[in-house]
Amino acid sequence: MSSTLAPRAAPFARALRDAVEASGLGLENIAARLRERDVEVSIATLSYWQSGNRVPGRKSSQVVVAHLESVLGLPPRSLRVLVPAPRPRGPIREESGALVPLFAEREAVRRIAERVQQPSSGRFLNRISQHDVVRLDAAHRIESVRTRTVARADADGLTTLGVTQFFEDRTAGTPQLTVHSGAEIVERHMDAGHRVLGTSLRFARPLDRGDTVVLDYEMTSNGPGPRDTSYDASCARPIREYVVEVHFPTSHLPVWVEAYGRPNLGHGEQWRHRISVDNLGHAHSVVLDCAPGTTGIAWSHATPVVKS
Questions:
Q1: Domain that holds residue 29
Q2: Model pLDDT for residues 77-128, shown as the tens digit of each residue
Q3: What is the pTM of this model?
Q4: Do the domain assignments include residue 252?
Q5: Among 120, 228, 248, 268, which is most buried by a count of CB atoms within 10 Å?
Q6: Where residue 35 sits, what CATH number does that domain have?
Q7: Contact assessment for residue 227 and residue 141, using Cβ atoms and an 8 Å cutoff
Q8: For residue 52, is it within any domain?
Q9: In the chain, how many domains are there?
Q10: Which residues contact 134 (CB under 8 A, 6 or more apart)?
């Protein structure tokens, strides 16, 4: 389940070791909790990963890492973004006459995430509710995403939170983050060439276990927004309430809109259903007791082609 890789494994190994130590769980307990989720990984493999002798390699190992984040109480993707990218080898894609390796953006995201995330603290937030408001412009590009999160500290002394954002659309600008309440920006790291922004947020006061915080921040772009046909959020733990709104210009309404959910392994079945757009161009989805996985809204401005 792993590939042998040492020097590049250091950030992932350190983050995993720190998270294991902070959790107070031994590797046997961690492996047992993973088995409860129908995820099989040996204690030896976990030991190799935290020592840096090996790193997750195949897709199945990435699934294990996603569940590890949940078991250890880490934010979604906080470990996955630190997994070293595979050695440069096919496939590649051709865009604007340039051959771009598929691993390039992933490596850039990992580098930025390393600089803003604080895996050694072992004190992370557990989201209770989240409300995302997505606004599209007339060119079908995402103009802004405003997020309001209510979260609870799982340990004492939480002071900072790292947020990493990435636009996959190569015609978009670089993400920009504005904090409206709940924290202040203390550090930014940007890779404009790969459209990645990492931001370190500091809370007004250290949070102790059980303390709650309300975060309100907004993502925009320093250029064109990303052209997309969906928006979703991922979570490693259940969220009591997840709300996502998409605001379309009334002059450019979509042909159809649907809400969907892709729970993690062992947390339910995938689902999707059509939702309506009101007279103001707004569509929304409310999911209570949102299961670990990915939940969001998809849309299309193209009329489906009916084959005769």
A1: 2-87
A2: 778 878 766 544 433 333 333 333 344 566 777 788 778 876 534 347 788 9
A3: 0.66
A4: no
A5: 248
A6: 1.10.260
A7: yes
A8: yes
A9: 1
A10: 142, 144, 145, 231, 244, 245, 246, 247, 297
Residue 259 lies in a domain: no
89: buried, middle or exposed (CB in 10 Å: 19+, 13-18, 0-12)? exposed
In a domain, 63, yes or no: yes
CA distances from 186 to 98, 159, 183 (A): 36, 11, 9
Query: Tokens in use for 134?
Result: 């997505």
d(CA 139, CA 301) in angstroms, rounded, equals 11
Structure tokens given for 58: 């195949």
Our CA angle for 251, 257, 262, nearest 5°, is 145
